[in-house]
Amino acid sequence: MKIISIILVGIVVVLQYTLWIGPGGMTSVWQLKKQLVEQQAENDKLKDRNDVLLAEIKDLKQGHSAIEERARNELGMIKKDETFYQIIEK
Asked: Within 13 Å and on the Cβ side, how many CA atoms surround 57?
């Protein structure tokens, strides 16, 4: 009877080890859940960035005002018969 009890306790210990620490155990599940949350946050950040870029692309395709604004701000271009004034603050 004592041997059976020892064997059963050994089986329970092995099963508990596998459940908590072994491969596919709870520790692995917690790590995967943490990675999932981090990946979802990264995906949300990238989705927001993509939405901004898509809105900019749509604006550039539909209107000339966005193209004109970029030409003025990024390239320093001006229209014909227009005078450019640059104000430099001290």
From this structure: 6
Residues in the chain: 90
Total domain count for the chain? 1
2-to-11, 13, 14 alpha-carbon distances in Å: 14, 17, 18
| CA 79 from centre of chain | 41
| Domain span holding position 47 | 2-75
Q: What are the pLDDT digits (tens) for 5-22?
A: 889 988 888 888 777 777
Q: pLDDT tens digits, residue range 24-70?
A: 778 888 999 999 999 999 999 999 999 999 988 888 788 777 778 87
Classify residue 43: in a domain, yes or no: yes
